[in-house]
Every structure is written in structure tokens, then in C-alpha cells.
Design brief:
Shape: globular
Distance between the termini: 53 Å
Strand content: 15-25%
Structural class: alpha/beta
Radius of gyration: 21 Å
Number of helices: 14
Helix content: 25-40%
Strand order of the largest sheet: 2-8-7-6-5-3-4
């Protein structure tokens, strides 16, 4: 009888609630404005010949590397950041190796590591989800072969200073250190320039958030050239599809469009946080395009009430330390105002925020 490997049988699949997403989608941190019109124009120009050919990734990688100020040998385009994580686990983890993950965070770090029969060590974030640098350093061992950090973190929106991440990378030279900068544009701080200077440091980016290309599944993994050559050995040459490769140069050229959207999100993030404080809901100041809010025992009813008003948000109650929490994506002016108007109604209806002084935050 055919059976999956024991490591796979023990996995709990990550099943995001994607079905039936009708309404204003503020649940998956997608762009609420969509991609640049230049991207759509390029998509319309794709012909049958392009789709009939296997995609050629390298010419676009050169353009992306130039955009990032890196050499082409340092950059690999991937099928979203998910593939980048998977490739690092396949390249560096043997059964019994240790992978360190600060929780709560993106679930796929642990899932891909566990699939390689590695041992995942979860390091809990500190008070108010502060990055636990000392605790993480204390958990390093000769078996540590992967350290994954989202910066800013999802679902908390908390960021960690770059010098702390560099110190961790230098303290564990035997480990691949992944800094996932999926929300970089909304934060503005990066370690991309160090990706080629510190041998074990890798930086990932995505075009799913600020660029509005989540449906095309394209991301970046950058690192030191010799290490990237090892990662390429386990990568499929065709994992990034032809449509994504065709439009990515146009997306990069239209930085004015991206910058306008990012500026809106940053302004609306502050607007939303001020409103959350005003109505007495506890939240964590965010460096990303979302805000985590503690609703308490009524979190399920809160999500349902917003859905009834045509707004989808994400229940994060099952994440470590996020009991009773809901994550709200921040988007355009129009969409953020719609969220705020609905929040006021739902908070009043459910009697939330009562007893908390105005302006309370986490």
C-alpha cells in the first residue's frame, strides 16, 4: 500500500478561507486598487505564441536585479514567496535539522520545514508581539539550519530593526536566514543590499501586495550568488508563468502607480488606527497594509457582522497569542472609509469597546 512519508502524514494543511469571497476583500492583504493599467495593457497584448512557449525567466531576472541594485546571479524569480520558502527548505534542511520560527507568523515557514522532516522550534513573540531577539539567539544550536522572519510580520504588523536580523544571521552562519519582506513597500526598510554581502542571508519579496499581482503568483528570492546557485539546483526552470514574466517589467516601470497606492495605504493605516483608538478597540501599530485588532470573545460574530455589510476581514483567533483577534486590510481612501463606517455600526451593535478609554492601543 502506497503511503506518504511520515513527515507529510503529520502535517496540518494550511487552508485559507478563499471560498465565497464576495464583497470588499479586506481579509488577505491584497491590493484593493488592483494592478497598474500598464500591466493590464500588456496582458491584453499576450498572444497564442507566447502562451505556447515555455517561459524564459532569466531576461526578466536581469531587469529585476537591475531594479534592486543586485547582480542577476543574486536574484531568482519564484512562484510567489511560497516557492522561495519551499526552495530554501529543500536546499538546506535535512531530516532532524532545526528550523526556528517566531510566532505568530506566516504558516508556510513551518509547513515547508516540517515537510522536509525538520524539527520546527517556535519562539513566541514578546509582550505586544515584540520581536524576541534574545530568546531566539538562545535557541540557536549546531542543528539550526533555517531561521525565518517576516519583516514586517504577518499577522501582527510588527517590524524588527535590520541590525538585529543581521546579528542573528552572523550568530548562525550554518543556517539560512530568510527575511520575508512581503510588506516592504508599506514599511520602507529593507535588507536587500545586504543579501549579497552576508552569505547566509536571503531576502524575499512579493508582487502580490503593493503591485496588485497576487493572482499571477510572482516573487523574488535574493541572496549571495554562490548560495543562490545552490538554490537554483532544486528550482524548476518553468515555475513562473509566461503571463507573469510578460507583465512584470511594466509593473516595475510604473512606480508612480505603486507609490500612489502605497501612500494611500500608509495614510489610511494611520486613519484606521486613530479610529480604532477612538472607538475603544485594542490594536497593534502596524508597519504593513493591515492592522491587527483584539475583539475578544465576539470575534466570530464581529467577522460575520462585517460580512453582512459586504466587508470581508480575517479571523486570526487560532494564531499563537492572537486569541480573539481579527486582521483588517488597509486599502484605498474609499475602501478604508467604507471599513470605518461599517466598524462604527458593528461596534455599536455588538457593544464592543465599552469600558475602554479613548485612544487605547496594544
Amino acid at each position: 500500500m502506497l503511503e506518504a512519508r511520515a513527515a507529510v502524514q503529520g502535517l496540518h494543511a494550511y487552508k485559507p478561507p478563499l471560498a465565497g469571497r464576495v464583497g470588499l476583500r479586506l481579509d488577505f492583504n491584497e491590493s484593493t486598487a488592483g494592478c497598474s493599467p500598464r500591466v493590464l495593457e500588456r496582458l491584453r497584448g499576450i498572444d497564442a505564441e507566447l502562451l505556447a512557449r515555455y517561459p524564459e525567466r532569466e531576461p526578466v531576472e536581469k531587469k529585476v536585479a537591475s531594479f534592486l541594485g543586485l547582480d542577476a546571479a543574486q536574484v531568482l524569480l519564484t512562484n510567489g514567496v511560497d516557492e522561495a520558502i519551499h526552495l530554501l527548505c529543500s536546499t538546506y534542511l535535512d531530516p532532524g535539522d532545526e528550523a526556528l520560527v517566531v510566532v505568530p507568523t506566516f504558516a508556510m515557514y513551518a509547513i515547508f520545514a516540517l515537510a522536509e522532516a525538520a524539527r520546527v522550534i517556535e519562539v513566541r513573540a514578546g509582550d505586544d508581539f515584540a520581536f524576541p531577539a534574545s530568546e531566539l539567539l538562545a535557541r540557536l544550536s549546531p542543528r539550526t539550519r533555517l531561521i525565518a522572519v517576516a519583516n514586517p510580520n504577518n499577522p501582527t504588523g510588527v517590524a524588527v530593526a535590520g541590525e538585529i536580523l543581521i546579528r542573528i544571521a552572523r550568530a548562525a552562519p550554518q543556517a539560512a536566514v530568510l527575511v520575508d519582506e512581503a510588506y516592504f513597500e508599506f514599511h520602507g526598510e529593507t535588507l536587500m543590499a545586504q543579501a549579497g554581502q552576508i552569505e547566509n542571508l536571503f531576502v524575499a519579496r512579493t508582487f502580490s501586495k503593493a503591485y496588485g499581482l497576487a493572482g499571477l503568483r510572482i516573487g523574488i528570492l535574493a541572496g549571495e550568488a554562490r548560495q543562490m546557485a545552490m538554490v537554483r539546483r532544486v528550482a524548476s526552470p518553468y515555475s513562473v508563468n509566461a503571463a507573469a514574466l510578460a507583465v512584470l517589467p511594466e509593473a516595475l516601470r510604473d512606480q508612480e502607480y505603486v507609490d500612489r497606492y502605497v501612500a494611500q495605504v500608509r495614510n489610511n493605516r494611520e486613519k484606521l488606527q486613530l479610529e480604532l483608538g477612538r472607538i475603544g478597540l485594542r490594536y497593534w501599530p502596524s508597519h504593513a497594509n493591515f492592522v491587527l485588532v483584539r475583539i475578544g470573545p465576539a470575534h466570530v460574530e464581529f467577522v460575520r457582522a462585517l460580512r453582512e455589510r459586504g466587508i470581508l476581514v480575517r479571523d486570526r483567533d487560532s494564531d499563537p497569542g492572537c486569541e480573539g483577534c481579527v486582521r483588517l486590510t488597509v486599502g484605498t481612501d474609499e475602501h478604508t472609509q467604507a471599513l470605518i463606517d461599517a466598524l462604527r455600526e458593528v461596534v455599536e451593535r455588538l457593544g464592543l469597546g465599552a469600558g475602554l478609554p479613548s485612544g487605547v492601543r496594544a
